[in-house]
Each structure stands twice: as C-alpha cells, then as structure tokens.
Amino acid sequence: MADTNWPSCCRSLKGVVLDMCGVLYDSGEGDGVAIPGSIEAVQRLKASDLQLRFCTNETQATREKFVAKLQRLGFDISVSEVFPPAPAVVAVLKQRGLRPHLLVYDGVLPEFDSIDKTNPNCVVIGDAAENFSYQNLNEAFRVLVGLEKPVLFSMGQGRYYKETDGLKLDVGVFMKALEYACDLEAEVIGKPSPMFFQTVLGDMNLQPHEALMIGDDLVNDVGGAQHCGMKGVQVRTGKYRQNVETWDLEELDQNLEQICTEPHPLPSSLDFICSFKQM
Amino acid sequence: MADTNWPSCCRSLKGVVLDMCGVLYDSGEGDGVAIPGSIEAVQRLKASDLQLRFCTNETQATREKFVAKLQRLGFDISVSEVFPPAPAVVAVLKQRGLRPHLLVYDGVLPEFDSIDKTNPNCVVIGDAAENFSYQNLNEAFRVLVGLEKPVLFSMGQGRYYKETDGLKLDVGVFMKALEYACDLEAEVIGKPSPMFFQTVLGDMNLQPHEALMIGDDLVNDVGGAQHCGMKGVQVRTGKYRQNVETWDLEELDQNLEQICTEPHPLPSSLDFICSFKQM
User: What angle do CA B227, B63, B214 make, to 5 degrees?
Assistant: First the structure.
C-alpha cells in the first residue's frame, strides 16, 4: 500500500518513473513537440540524487528510433533508461514458445525480428494506428478463432492518446474489440500491468514505496503505479481532460484528488515534490 | 416465461420469425447463395396457417435493395414482412430529436435521407465493414467525446458473421470498441433488443408465447427471443460453430440443448416443429 502522506512519501523518494507521450512531448507530425519545461525538468531530475527511468506504452517504433526522436527534441535520455512493451512481449513469447501473428505498427516490426512467426499460435497487438483496418482486424480475429486455446497479447490497454491534430484511439480499444469477438481476455503487457512496473523497479533496485510515477493517464500511469505500491502523480498535459477522466477517480487512491486540484505540467509536479524534499 | 415444453409450444404456435443471413442464405460476392432447402422452407411456411416475418440485423442495404436481393435468390418475400434496424433507428432519432453522425455501410445511407445530420449530437453505427477504418472510428470517437451527454446507437451487437470467403467481424465488436474508448453503454437497436422483437410481435398481433424465432445466432436470435417470452430455435447453418458458441448456452433456456443435439438447417427445424403441429 502506498504511503498516502505526501511529505513523508517525498522525503523517502529514491526514484522517479516518467511517462513519455503527453508528459515529455506531444506526438504528431514529424517528431511531435516537446511540452514546455519538460526538457529542463528531466535535466533537473538527472542532476538530483533520484534515479530516473522512462516507462512508456509506445509501440510504434523500436526503442532505438524512439529514443533518437526524444534526443532530437532535446531530451537527455538513453536507450537503457526506457521501458516499452515490445521487448517485454518478445521475452514472454520466447519463454512460452509462442509464435505471434502481429497486428502492430510497421515501425515496431524490427523488435520482433528474432521471433518465429510461421504458423502462428497467438496474436500480438500494439498501437497499430492506420494498420487497424477492417481487413487486418478480421485477419487477427480469424487466427484467434482458429486456435484451440486462443491467446491475445495487448501492448498496453490505453483508450486514446493525443496527437498534435487531435485525440486518437489507442490499442486498448481494439483489444476490447477482439476480446468481445472471441470471448477471451487479453494478456496486457505494458502499463498498467504490475509486472511491467516491477521490471522498472527491479532495474532501479528500489522498493515500490521508494518510487513515484508521473504520467498523464489516470488509469494506466497513476492507477497502475498505485496498485504496485508506488506513488502516482497525474500531470494535466497530454491527454488530460477534466470532464472525461473523473470517472476513474473513485477507483484510485483518494489522496490523488489533493494533488489533482492544482494545474500540473511536469515542472509543477517536480515543484510540488520539491516542496517536501530537497532536490 | 416461454413454455419449455416443445409439443404444447408448437401446438399453440401462430407465427414464425426467421433470421435471414445464415438461415436463408450465406452472404458473399454478388447476392451470396441460398442455403439448400431454405427457399422451399419459406414456401412451406407461407402455405401454412402460420404468420411469417423476417427479422434481420442486416444494415448494409436499404430494405428495398435487401429484399430485391432475396427475391433474386428465389425467395417469396416482400418489403413489409422484413424488419431491419435502420428504420427503427430513424424512428427513435425523430422521436428524440437527435442528429446522427453515421458510421455505416454506404448502401444503407438512403434510409437516413429524411434525418438532419448537421451538427451531430449522437453517433449511429451499423455493420460498416470496410468503412470501419481507423480514420472513421477516430471521427466517431471524436464526435462522442465532444458531447456533454454522448449517445451511441448500435444497429445490432453481433460478434461476427459468415460470408462465402470466411468469418467477418460484425458491428458489436466496434460497439464494444467505442464503448470502451468513451466509457459509455451503447443503445442497441436490433436483435437481441426486446423492443425490436416486440415490434415484430405487434405487427403480427401475437403474444410472445404464440411465436417462434429461428436463427443461427444463439445470443441475438435465440437468446433475444427467449428473453421476450418467445421460443427460440438455433439452426446449424450460417455462423454456427460447435466449439465456439457453447459458452453462451448456460445463459439460455436449458431446453434449447435438447433441440441443439440434432443437426439443424431450416427445413429440419420445420420438420421438428411439424412433428408436434400439423403444418
């Protein structure tokens, strides 16, 4: 259970995990745009005694290409600090001897180069965007209904995300579609899966109560972290929309409301934490 | 509550409601193909003293074009006997003063000619097939999240249907997708909505226990009819797949299992009924 007392929680803090899209940058044409103050906020965290990791449900590019984009936007960030779902899925597939039918964005395909994809016995979906065509969804459906024990992996379960030209449907929507079509429950790999947060905590060698997650998604970032025993903070950039996301508040640590009453881009979140901890 | 005793139920029978796709014909290229024996089965019903109606979740064509296709396949059928969702949705939209954003198949658009579609305050989806593109789903999503009180009508809630080249995802799958994206519950117009069955019963001026529904969908045809107090029979043509649909059996009238143990194209279903009723 997370410590719900902010001052004592912040004083014991040893690591921060940042969501990326909607916290560091807004995606869109080209590389998208950095959110004002976020480049400096990352610098400030790196200059502190806190450990820093980046945890994302981004599944449209390989880790290398994704990190290169963030570097071009001005962020001080390296591949080893970033945790996306695709490498985690590849590890699970290898461990369980599964051969995937992939319904993913073309850019992330190289992450699956080392995996046998012949005669598939499971389906993996990511944020495939335009690849979520009727034809491709039918193909994934037919693979699943043809299996005696259908297995569907979903890289995240987000509802939507914000690009510079508006809100776009995320992978969770198509996960629900295939779950209903095949009457099955997908295995989610990515946020808010506890296993995913624990991998990041393990990499920092920290206990949950020593780490804080900052994201723009109340369910996948804040809720996922809280279910793990971490503290969660929601920024009001990215997909944050006051009227839409309040439905989820009841499920979450009530103390969250206290911090949610203030406007919250990433720098303000750090100021809030700093008010309790020297940083 | 339906009479679960087949002999007495069949003797009191005054009307039969037939599902169309998967019972009368399999859809596919061109007009699709009539299922062997189904043309004669319709003739036999028309020659009996039973009333006959056709109840379909077909939303890819206007009633006129849809019925013309069935006539070309050889069926004795007229427009006034056929109940699809689109005219029912149009009635509801007019009654509630709603202006729809339509995500439907092009062929059904003329059904909505009489409706104001400017500045939409609800979304209507049907079996849009290839029109279920990522872009069109995003557009429908954006309309819904932009409304203070989002309203989504779904013309049916089927999981999939069979065309001559294989199984295809039906409207229910995309209904679930938008429900999850917007955290709302769609209003289903079509089978298995009780209101939809009651409209057909009203047209025949029959009580539920006097009517029987024959379809290939255990949830939408058989279950929907049973929830209305009608009797339901599943044929084993169309989308019927032994291993996939058993999950729904538990929810239904247990007596159904008795009839489901026999192979069941439409003519055999009529033979079964005839064994209890002179026809």
Answer: 35
Q: Are A169 and A160 in contact (CB under 8 A)?
A: yes
How far A273 CA lies from chain B's nearest CA (Å)? 32
**pTM recorded for the entire structure:** 0.82
Chain B positions touching A247 (Cβ under 8 A) are: 183
Count other C-beta atoms under 10 Å from residue B183's C-beta.
13
CA–CA distance, A226 with A213 (Å, rounded to integer): 9
**Domain at B13-57+191-240+259-278: CATH code:** 3.40.50.1000
A86-188 CATH fold:
Rossmann fold (3.40.50)
Domain extents for chain A?
13-57+191-240+259-278, 86-188
Q: How far is CA A90 from the centre of its chain?
A: 17
Same fold, A13-57+191-240+259-278 and A86-188: yes
Cross-chain CB nearest to A169 (options B129, B141, B241)? B141
Is the CB of A138 less than 8 angstroms away from the CB of B180? no
Provide the shortest C-alpha distance from residue A60 to chain B (in Å): 15
Q: Is the ipTM of this complex over 0.85?
A: no
**Contact check, Cβ <8 Å, A167/B173:** no
Report the gap between the CA of A6 and the closest CA in chain B (Å): 31
Quick: pLDDT tens for B130-153: 999 999 999 999 999 999 999 999
pLDDT in tens, B59-109: 999 999 999 999 999 999 999 999 999 999 999 999 999 999 999 999 999
